[in-house]
Amino acid sequence: MQTEPQNEHQWLQKLVGEWTCEIECETEATMGPDQPSEKATGTESVRSLGGLWVVAEGQGGMPGGGAATTMMTLGYDPQKQRYVGTWVGSMMSCLWVYDGELDTSNNVLTLNAEGPALSTEAKTAKYRDVIEFKSDDHRVMTSHMLGDDGQWHWFMTASYRRKP
Hints:
Layout: H1 7-12, E1 17-25, H2 28-31, E2 38-49, E3 53-61, E4 67-77, E5 82-89, E6 96-102, E7 108-116, E8 124-135, E9 138-146, E10 152-162
Antiparallel strand pairs: 1-2, 1-10, 2-3, 3-4, 4-5, 5-6, 6-7, 7-8, 8-9, 9-10
């Protein structure tokens, strides 16, 4: 079995490299209204796996305190014609499974997942992580949760800059 990388796989290779990260999280979803957003910093190392996948390992502080390690895998499934992947973090026991698509500008990858609700782990919620390339050396990921009101609510932004 030998799969040749397609354009969709090649798009993922833009993520490969060493990155610094600044994170801002909304705290209202977890700590109540009228709380200021929290900030943290970190690094991310992204490598290619056969030109078909990328594996991203992040290290840094969590907004609100504490160190965390995260691991993301992203690929493209030609059978499904969808981007697929996973995300895990040292701060939780949930395996997040991604399903997504690239927009027509080829700059924005939207990844959908389902996992524990921010308000209570007894309930699940739908999530959306959006990765947007501002330039080859700057990308932003925003995270949203689908609320009971049927609207997507922002709760996190991570701004990545490629290390020189």
